[in-house]
UniProtKB/TrEMBL annotation:
Belongs to the KLHDC10 family. Coiled coil: none annotated. Keywords: Kelch repeat, Repeat. Gene3D superfamilies: Kelch-type beta propeller (2.120.10.80). The keyword Transferase does not apply. It comes from the Eukaryota. PANTHER family: KELCH DOMAIN-CONTAINING PROTEIN 10 (PTHR46428:SF1). GO terms for biological process: positive regulation of stress-activated MAPK cascade. InterPro entries: Gal_Oxase/kelch_b-propeller, Kelch-typ_b-propeller, Kelch_1, KLHDC10. SUPFAM superfamilies: Galactose oxidase, central domain, Kelch motif. This is Kelch domain-containing protein 10.
């Protein structure tokens, strides 16, 4: 894929999927019925075993609002909400588009109820059959609305917002949210001119519908992460990991961990290979975090670099599989050969499945 920013990714244990993104160097590119430059109307798949990228030909209509949208993975379905098309802020979405990754087919879900406003730069999280969308911008106004979608009924319910009496945090965009024990943790974000701190974290209770402020504990040596927006944030067990982002006029390359039980920040010794913001990241069920793309020089340069880091020690079987993939070029070996070698089918299946 070309260098891009503002895209989103999801991962399985076998593949990474990247949807959308933006690169201003493509403004003068000719568009046909399938392209929408300078936005990338593209769905890419990266197979971890073969190390191959494949642009997927999808069925039905792919959305056009492909910058600062959000995605979550629901089994074989990638749920995409919101985003902006060109020009930014003039053509926003509040649609829920779903791509079945096993068939590469799109479907627009017809939802009802208290729909969120059309926006981008919001955050999204999923728990069981509920999807939560928080904050974002129309391009002219920021908000801190909290909406919940029931996937069984496709009904939207507004849980918090400007017209509600309870106090809420500053409106913002390009933040992240994490769900744990019926609560949504609001991580960073900002506006065009500021970034919000991470020493105190706003938390929204999805049942009693109230905000509270959670005071975190600093890393004993490194203190707190710097305020940031356009970063990435992943939850793994009872810990969240943030990396990269925009710190005022500086791009971050650091990685931090927040334990949601002790509320303690820890700065990891590892750094990103290059500072990025407006990148995309996701973590596998086994704890391998992948980071793709982003802006590497403010307003000037984007990247298509793909990196990974293990956030916890993987199982021994996974280590063996990773070593095998490093040793054998999986692009040129068939499944039968691997099975004859004694490789378990659950790993061999990764060559061809989700």
């Amino acid at each position: 894929p070309d260098e891009r920013s503002g895209h989103r990714i999801v991962v399985t244990d076998a593949n990474l999927y990247s949807i959308g993104g933006y690169n201003p160097n493509f403004w003068d590119e000719h568009n046909d019925e399938t392209t929408y430059y300078p936005l990338f109307r593209e769905l890419w798949k990266f197979n971890f075993a073969t190390r191959l990228w494949t642009q997927l030909e999808t069925q039905s209509t792919m959305p056009y609002e492909l910058a600062s949208h959000t995605v979550v993975l629901d089994r074989c379905n990638m749920l995409m909400f919101g985003g902006t098309a060109i020009p930014f802020g003039e053509s926003n979405s509040n649609d829920l588009n779903v791509c079945n990754l096993s068939t590469a087919s799109w479907k627009l879900y017809t939802c009802y109820g208290d729909l969120p406003t059309k926006k981008y730069g919001h955050a999204m999280s999923m728990q069981d059959d509920l999807v939560f969308v928080v904050g974002g911008t129309s391009g002219y106004r920021y908000n801190m609305d909290v909406h919940q979608l029931n996937l069984k009924t496709l009904k939207w319910t507004q849980l918090s917002g400007k017209e509600y009496k309870s106090a809420h945090p500053e409106s913002r965009y390009r933040h992240e949210i994490v769900y744990r024990d019926r609560e949504l943790y609001l991580i960073g974000g900002g506006t065009a001119i500021e970034q919000y701190s991470l020493d105190k974290i706003p938390v929204f209770h999805t049942v009693n519908l109230k905000w509270k402020e959670l005071k975190t504990k600093p890393d004993p040596i490194k203190g707190f992460p710097a305020p940031r927006k356009c970063h990435s944030c992943m939850k793994l067990n009872n810990e969240i990991y943030i990396c990269g982002g925009l710190l005022d006029r500086k791009i971050a390359d650091d990685i931090w961990k927040l334990n949601l039980v002790t509320i303690q920040w820890t700065k990891l010794s590892a750094f990103l290979p290059q500072p990025v913001y407006f990148h995309a990241a996701s973590v596998t069920s086994l704890g391998c975090m992948y980071i793709f793309g982003g802006v590497s020089k403010i307003d000037v340069e984007r990247t298509n670099g793909l990196y990974k880091i293990w956030l916890k020690i993987p199982p021994l079987t996974e280590m063996c599989w990773q070593l095998l993939c490093d040793t054998i070029d999986m692009k040129y070996i068939n499944s039968e050969k691997l099975l004859d070698m004694g490789v378990p089918s659950l790993f061999v299946d990764r060559l061809s499945t989700l």
